[in-house]
Amino acid sequence: MQSHGGNDGRLTTHVLDTASGKPAKDLRIELYRIEGERQTHLRSVRTNDDGRCDQPLLSGSLMQAGTYELQFHAGDYLGSEAARGANPFLDVIPIRFGIDDQAAHYHVPLLLSPYGYSTYRGS
């Protein structure tokens, strides 16, 4: 991947509840850097009313090449919906991915329902 130059590199996410057709608001997300067997916790955030984070998860000097993992706490979110039951099928959804170009925008959306999810590299 080509570098875009400058310091515009960033990591973002967006969580959509495909069962309700709405953004997944107030969903907790943990970000880790992975180095071999070691996981280093970088930050904890919650999604806003639009299912996004108010700021990039990584940007500036924190945006470095390497392996990362986003942990989406879907069980807490899905459990808050009384109609879905007290024991949701999905709990913590880990998505491990690599960043090669620290000047690029990496967007990792999550499409979530009570019984499945999908992700992709967005824009």
From TrEMBL:
Example GO molecular function: hydroxyisourate hydrolase activity
Chemical reaction(s) catalysed: 5-hydroxyisourate + H2O = 5-hydroxy-2-oxo-4-ureido-2,5-dihydro-1H-imidazole-5-carboxylate + H(+)
Pfam family, one: Transthyretin
Occurrences of domain Transthyretin/hydroxyisourate hydrolase (ranges): 11-122
Main enzyme class: hydrolase
One GO term of the biological process aspect: purine nucleobase metabolic process
EC number: 3.5.2.17
InterPro entries: Hydroxyisourate_hydrolase, Thyroxine_BS, Transthyretin/HIU_hydrolase, Transthyretin/HIU_hydrolase_d, Transthyretin/HIU_hydrolase_sf, Transthyretin_CS
Annotated CDD domains: TLP_HIUase
Keyword line: Hydrolase, Purine metabolism
Binding site for substrate: 14, 52, 120
Record function comment: Catalyzes the hydrolysis of 5-hydroxyisourate (HIU) to 2-oxo-4-hydroxy-4-carboxy-5-ureidoimidazoline (OHCU).
Protein family (similarity comment): Belongs to the transthyretin family. 5-hydroxyisourate hydrolase subfamily.
UniProt subunit comment: Homotetramer.
Protein name (Swiss-Prot/TrEMBL): 5-hydroxyisourate hydrolase
Source species: Ensifer oleiphilus
Name of encoding gene: uraH
